[in-house]
Specification:
There is one protein chain. By secondary structure, this protein is mainly α. It folds into two domains: about 45 residues, no CATH class; about 35 residues, no CATH class. About 40% of the residues lie in helices and about 0% in strands. It contains three helices and no strands.
Protein backbone atom coordinates (compact mmCIF):
# COMPACT_ATOMS: atom_id res chain seq x y z
CA UNK A 1 0.00 0.00 0.00
CA UNK A 2 1.11 3.53 -0.74
CA UNK A 3 0.00 6.78 0.88
CA UNK A 4 -2.16 9.04 -1.30
CA UNK A 5 -1.85 11.98 1.13
CA UNK A 6 0.67 13.21 3.69
CA UNK A 7 0.15 11.99 7.24
CA UNK A 8 0.32 14.69 9.90
CA UNK A 9 0.37 14.35 13.66
CA UNK A 10 -3.21 14.26 14.91
CA UNK A 11 -2.62 17.18 17.28
CA UNK A 12 -0.93 19.52 14.76
CA UNK A 13 -1.67 19.85 11.07
CA UNK A 14 0.71 22.77 10.53
CA UNK A 15 3.95 20.90 11.22
CA UNK A 16 5.98 18.69 8.92
CA UNK A 17 4.27 15.44 7.92
CA UNK A 18 5.05 12.22 9.74
CA UNK A 19 5.03 10.43 6.37
CA UNK A 20 4.82 11.92 2.90
CA UNK A 21 2.52 11.13 0.02
CA UNK A 22 3.86 8.15 -1.94
CA UNK A 23 5.44 6.49 1.09
CA UNK A 24 5.12 2.69 1.05
CA UNK A 25 3.36 1.38 4.14
CA UNK A 26 4.85 -1.54 6.00
CA UNK A 27 3.44 -3.36 9.02
CA UNK A 28 6.01 -1.76 11.30
CA UNK A 29 5.30 1.75 9.95
CA UNK A 30 1.55 1.25 10.39
CA UNK A 31 2.12 0.11 13.97
CA UNK A 32 4.36 3.12 14.67
CA UNK A 33 1.73 5.50 13.27
CA UNK A 34 -0.93 3.87 15.49
CA UNK A 35 1.29 4.41 18.52
CA UNK A 36 1.62 8.08 17.51
CA UNK A 37 -2.19 8.46 17.54
CA UNK A 38 -2.84 8.36 13.80
CA UNK A 39 -6.32 6.89 13.33
CA UNK A 40 -6.82 7.02 9.55
CA UNK A 41 -4.73 6.93 6.39
CA UNK A 42 -5.61 7.69 2.78
CA UNK A 43 -4.04 5.10 0.50
CA UNK A 44 -3.79 4.91 -3.28
CA UNK A 45 -6.04 2.60 -5.24
CA UNK A 46 -9.69 1.88 -5.77
CA UNK A 47 -12.06 2.09 -2.82
CA UNK A 48 -13.15 -1.20 -1.33
CA UNK A 49 -16.78 -2.16 -1.15
CA UNK A 50 -17.97 -2.25 2.45
CA UNK A 51 -20.57 -4.62 3.79
CA UNK A 52 -24.02 -3.36 2.88
CA UNK A 53 -22.84 -1.24 -0.06
CA UNK A 54 -24.08 -1.96 -3.58
CA UNK A 55 -21.73 -2.78 -6.44
CA UNK A 56 -21.73 -0.62 -9.57
CA UNK A 57 -24.07 -3.02 -11.36
CA UNK A 58 -26.46 -3.18 -8.40
CA UNK A 59 -26.50 0.61 -8.05
CA UNK A 60 -27.31 1.09 -11.73
CA UNK A 61 -30.04 -1.54 -11.49
CA UNK A 62 -31.60 0.30 -8.53
CA UNK A 63 -31.44 3.54 -10.53
CA UNK A 64 -33.24 1.89 -13.47
CA UNK A 65 -35.99 0.63 -11.15
CA UNK A 66 -36.47 4.06 -9.61
CA UNK A 67 -36.96 5.73 -12.97
CA UNK A 68 -38.92 2.99 -14.77
CA UNK A 69 -42.29 4.77 -14.43
CA UNK A 70 -41.07 8.03 -15.97
CA UNK A 71 -39.22 6.84 -19.09
CA UNK A 72 -41.41 9.06 -21.29
CA UNK A 73 -40.42 12.25 -19.44
CA UNK A 74 -37.29 13.81 -21.02
CA UNK A 75 -36.47 15.87 -17.93
CA UNK A 76 -36.57 12.83 -15.70
CA UNK A 77 -34.34 10.95 -18.15
CA UNK A 78 -31.85 13.84 -18.02
CA UNK A 79 -31.90 13.63 -14.24
CA UNK A 80 -31.40 9.86 -14.39
CA UNK A 81 -28.39 10.33 -16.67
CA UNK A 82 -26.85 12.80 -14.20
CA UNK A 83 -27.28 10.27 -11.39
CA UNK A 84 -25.94 7.45 -13.59
CA UNK A 85 -22.75 9.39 -14.36
CA UNK A 86 -22.30 10.25 -10.68
CA UNK A 87 -22.74 6.61 -9.62
CA UNK A 88 -20.25 5.39 -12.22
CA UNK A 89 -17.70 8.04 -11.25
CA UNK A 90 -18.01 7.34 -7.53
CA UNK A 91 -17.91 3.53 -7.76
CA UNK A 92 -15.27 2.96 -10.43
Amino acid sequence: MMLAEDVNASDRNDGPPLCGKGCTLTASLIERLKQMGVQALVIEGHPLQSAGENSLEESLSVLDRRFKLVTDDPRMMMLKEIYRKHIIKSLE
